[in-house]
Amino acid sequence: MDKISPLELKHLLLGEEELALIDVREQGTFSESHLLFAVCVPLSRLELLIGDLVPRRDTRLVIVDESASDDLGSRDNLSSRGAQRLSELGYTNVILLDGGVEAWRSASLELFSGVNVPSKAFGEFVEHNYETPRLAAAEVKAMLDEGRNMVIVDSRPFEEYHRMNIPTATDMPGAELAFRIHDVAPDPETFVVVNCAGRTRSIIGAQSLINAGIPNPVAALKDGTMGWHLAGFELEHSSTQVADGPSAAGIEKALAAAARVAERFGVPTVTPETVEQWLQDSGRTTYLLDVRSPAEYENGHLAGYRNAPGGQLVQATDEYVAVKNAWLVLSDDIGVRATMTASWLIQMGWQNVYVLEGGIGSALLERGAREPTLLGEIDAATVTTDALAHALGDNAVTVIDLGPSTGYEQHHIPGALWCVRARLAEAIAPLPATADIVLTSTDGLLARLALKEARALTAGEVQALDGGTDRWLAEDRVTESGLEHIVGDTDDVWYKPYEHRGAQEKFMRDYLTWEVALVEQIERDGTTRFRAF
After folding, report:
1. Nearest to residue 221, comparing CAs of 317, 115, 335, 142?
2. CATH architecture group of domain 382-474
3. The domains spanning 3-114 and 382-474 adopt the same CATH topology
4. Which of 74-88, 180-194, 284-298, 444-458 has the lowest mean pLDDT?
5. Which of 27, 69, 208, 270 is the most exposed place for a label (fewest CB within 10 A)?
6. What SS3 state is found at 439?
7. Which CATH class is domain 3-114?
8. What is the CB-side half-sphere exposure of residue 279 using CA atoms within 13 A?
9. What is the CATH code of the structural domain delimited by 261-356?
10. Integer angstrom CA distances of residue 169 from 26, 197, 261
11. Using an 8 Å Cβ cutoff, are 204 and 343 in contact?
């Protein structure tokens, strides 16, 4: 297996060639220490993620784990196993970071904790360079209590807003701000406060409105809902106040705002015909991304475009795009949200970002959510929930749950073991040699993907649960909760500060301190191309 040294990799990261840096460890482990531009694609779910993240099979892929080597015989070596699996899936240019994260650290190169770090570091860069106005929770609370002429807009997706929000806040996710704000705050004297859970989307959202040139005073809520909670103020829960689509007058103002942003940040457009030519170029990776809301996307979208709501694309770019120096084409309906999103990606250092001329226009549209690109063999052999319930009653089968540990902890099939797929061998090894096994996962898909490897580990019969644990739950069958039967660590998930089982305030403070410190850390790293206009 070909390898690359840490210093050689850093040189590549500074270059212009396409490159995908793939970390195959579980998300929880990844979040503890990783390279800045590494994209977390756990070996356990590789076939579910890699097709959309790295669509071109001859892209140069550098695979990373804790201490990568080329020992294909080691079950513990995630990088060699990942490289082998990628080769089986048709990827032809796969190499290992020699020595993995440990070698990067030994070379005195910068390592980062957390997730979505490039985007979060960029948010701090924006605040530092543009001096984005901000208000502390106490100041915003005082304004509310005084009855000031103000609106609070929450720049997170609805699911996050619905969980908890600042009192009176209206949900208006990132790219929607410059599109919808004109009807929500038509009075130029209305003070607009933008918040998220922490810092990044508050900063980017507030600066978006400033860049768009709205006449209102604008500020970010310092530290978002976490800062509000830490200040001792109450949050609302289960709110449903969502900004409506813009009126005709609002659209006119939004288009004017987008035009100003496009001129300032040099946002280019591209015709559909040129995009088709790019897609035929075997040496170029071109991502097609629809930046509208999920509901709008499902109602009708252009063929080949994935949904990447603009605010989230800026907030978590690595969850949508893994190939550095790739080309990005953004679409929406009238160009406002695509332009606003493109302006931020350009500032993040993406050199080939374009807005599709005419947007979705009158083209023939596909409807519904797009299924992710799935690679690998999917065995259809399944066992029904009725048959599994009968087998469990006879103690004739062992269930192994490969879904998220968070879901398993909440409710799982009685007696089921839990492990990440990458540690399936560890779960099967202690079982009798002829034990019958049923694999399950959230919807059953991951379990079916794992059938082939599981069958190679035992002489017993191995099946996958039809419909997965979701179907078992939907049928209101008996479940258990807790983490009593786990194999290995529950390292598959990075917990948000407010998701920890205890000491949430400590995790919130630590998280906010970490975000602020990213500015100095990215300067030490030296591989970002953030641009200040």
Report:
1. 142
2. 3-Layer(aba) Sandwich (3.40)
3. yes
4. 74-88
5. 69
6. strand
7. alpha beta
8. 13
9. 3.40.250.10
10. 35, 13, 26
11. no
From residue 337, how far is each of 243, 254, 308, 374 by CA, in Å? 15, 9, 11, 29
Predicted pLDDT of residue 68 = 65
Element (H, E) at 100: helix 100-106
pLDDT at residue 71, rounded to an integer: 52
State the Cα–Cα distance between residues 5 and 25, nearest whole angstrom.
Answer: 19
Can you read off the two tokens belonging to residue 199? 């810092």
Other CB atoms within a 10 A radius of the CB of residue 247 amount to 13
Between β-strands 19-23 and 323-324, what pairing exists: parallel, antiparallel or unpaired? antiparallel
Is the CATH number 3.40.50.620 carried by domain 121-260? no
Task: Give percent of the chain above pLDDT 70.
Answer: 98
Nearest to 507 by CA among 105, 113, 121, 26: 113
User: Which residues 6+ apart lie within 8 Å of 202 measured at CB?
Assistant: 134, 155, 194, 195, 196, 220, 221, 222, 224
Number of CB atoms found within 10 A of residue 381's CB: 12
Domain boundaries, the chain: 3-114, 121-260, 261-356, 382-474
What does DSSP say about strands 134-135 and 327-331: parallel, antiparallel, or unpaired? unpaired
Under a CB-based contact definition with an 8 Å cutoff, are residues 491 and 28 in contact? yes
Look up tokens 């987008």; give the residue: 258
Q: Which residues contact 496 (CB under 8 A, 6 or more apart)?
A: 197
Query: What element of type H or E holds 416?
Result: none
Nearest to 31 by CA among 511, 531, 442, 450: 511
**H/E stretch holding 418:** strand 417-418
d(CA 58, CA 227): 45
Above pLDDT 90, what percent of the chain?
94
d(CA 151, CA 157): 18
Model confidence pLDDT, tens digit, residues 481-515:
999 999 999 999 999 999 988 899 999 999 999 99
Q: How many Cα neighbours within 13 Å face the side chain of 528? A: 26
Helix (H, G, I), strand (E, B) or coil at 390: helix
